[in-house]
Design a protein that fits this description.
The protein is an all-beta fold and 227 residues long. It has no helices and 21 strands. This is WDR82 protein.
């Protein structure tokens, strides 16, 4: 239930951040400063500063949260109870959300993550079911629901945007990576990384055309350049 801040340089913990009373299920670092947010099964979201072990802000929710900063570090989104996305302004988040988007609740699965696209226009909602959702970050309208990949055991699979915000990708239970065009909603590729288990981590390089995917082993991906 405690968050730790690790120095990779000398492999020591610099700071502990106690406060949550149940398992931490979401963690998002501000892209612009030393602020980060965490969400826990204790139904709270906490706001922190890396320089202080004390929580800088606390929000009580009605259910399990997932949360993420937007790319400019000005607002953050909280997904609550697998049915609502609430947007908060970082400077006045104690006043409550400035926007709330209610989705249809799906009893078959729960939300496992939220991510903003780099242009800030889209939010990707990951689930532990057989689909992920792409919504408009300003209006909350569902733009696409992506499915057709394997996830029968309710694994938390990580979905990611490409840095140009145009494509969405997710690993699957059978070790394949599925890629969709965010605008058209069409599946454009299924990549086989020879993964032996479910791909629980998938992260795109923020600058270059490479990404990494991991089950119990890890694969690095490079583009194929035709001669």
């Amino acid at each position: 239930d405690t968050i730790r801040y690790l120095s990779l340089h000398d492999n020591k913990y610099i700071r502990y951040f106690p406060g949550h009373t149940k398992r931490v299920v979401a963690l998002s670092m501000s892209p612009v400063d030393d602020t980060f947010i965490s969400g826990s099964l204790d139904k709270t979201i906490r706001l922190w500063d890396l320089r202080s072990p004390n929580c800088q802000g606390l929000m009580h929710l009605q259910g399990k949260p997932v949360c993420s900063f937007d790319p400019e570090g000005l607002i953050f989104a909280a997904g609550v109870n697998s049915e609502m996305v609430k947007l908060y302004d970082l400077r006045s988040f104690d006043k409550g959300p400035f926007a709330t988007f209610k989705m249809q609740y799906d009893r078959t699965c729960e939300w496992t993550g939220l991510k903003f696209s780099n242009d800030g226009k889209l939010i990707l909602i990951s689930t532990n079911g057989g689909f992920i959702r792409l919504i408009d970050a300003f209006k909350g309208a569902i733009l696409h629901t992506f499915g057709g990949y394997n996830n029968s055991k309710a694994v938390t699979l990580e979905a990611s945007f490409t840095p140009d915000s145009q494509f969405i990708m997710i690993g699957s239970e059978d070790g394949k990576i599925h890629v969709w065009n965010g605008e058209s909603g069409m599946k454009v590729a299924v990549l086989d990384g020879k993964h032996t288990g479910p791909i629980t981590c998938l992260q795109f390089n923020p600058k270059f055309m490479t990404f990494a995917s991991a089950c119990s082993n890890m694969a690095f991906w490079l583009p194929t350049i035709d001669d």
